[in-house]
């Protein structure tokens, strides 16, 4: 019988994880993207798998490789593809963790041919992408839903608003303030805020260690 002391406390649990950036096409050779490396989501996926969970990792473009072949990797490019992949699997999972840096806007009219340079400036009209996490929050039943929040001001207040807006159980607030933390770095400075607004600041640590902390929260959810 599994318990918190077990080496595989998440055996029998299915976890959906999003990772990486999304690329939104401007034309066939250009896109709008961001600096997300995918490392946070991949580290969460690896650790969840090591704890016995069945893992579906939906990732945007990244150079990262998975050594662990038991993780199901679903590679996507755009926010729309990530949305569709997540909705394909969400019904069947016990936990969803949204670590992807999804583009908030995409070109409204992506060009089918390479845009040629002209004598005048270029404006690109942008439209909103779907908020994947919020859409999962709307349809969630028993799933434990975890999101990230990247804030540069009014961090705690903004993160609390995201918990409510997206119907989350837990949010991982990412601070960019710290020199060693965030995009392209191997460390993160996070603060946990749960749906009852309990606030738990963590030390600056490696993304592997942050992944462990996040999965400790998941394990506790099932055993408390
Ligand atoms: N997210 C998502 N789909 C989007 C945008 C964000 O699933 N289209 C998820 C992210 O994966 C993250 C959480 O929502 O878990 C918060 O992302 P963040 O960019 O911090 O918040 P936004 O709601 O996009 O608001 P803003 O960028 O204005 O702060
Ligand atoms: Ca955003």
Question: Can you tell me about this structure?
Answer:
The protein is of the alpha/beta class and 224 residues long. It has one domain (14-105, 128-223): CoaB-like (Rossmann fold). The protein has helices spanning 39-50, 79-89, 132-139, 155-166, 207-223; strands at 14-19, 24-27, 30-32, 54-59, 72-75, 95-98, 105-107, 126-128, 144-151, 170-175, 187-188, 190-194, 199-201, 205-206. Helix 1 packs across helix 5. The protein is globular and about 65 Å long. The structure holds cytidine-5'-triphosphate (CTP) and calcium ion. Its cofactor is FMN; Mg(2+). Catalyzes two steps in the biosynthesis of coenzyme A. In the first step cysteine is conjugated to 4'-phosphopantothenate to form 4-phosphopantothenoylcysteine, in the latter compound is decarboxylated to form 4'-phosphopantotheine. It catalyses: (R)-4'-phosphopantothenate + L-cysteine + CTP = N-[(R)-4-phosphopantothenoyl]-L-cysteine + CMP + diphosphate + H(+); N-[(R)-4-phosphopantothenoyl]-L-cysteine + H(+) = (R)-4'-phosphopantetheine + CO2. One of its GO terms (molecular function) is phosphopantothenoylcysteine decarboxylase activity.
What's a concise summary of this model?
By secondary structure, this protein is of the alpha/beta class.
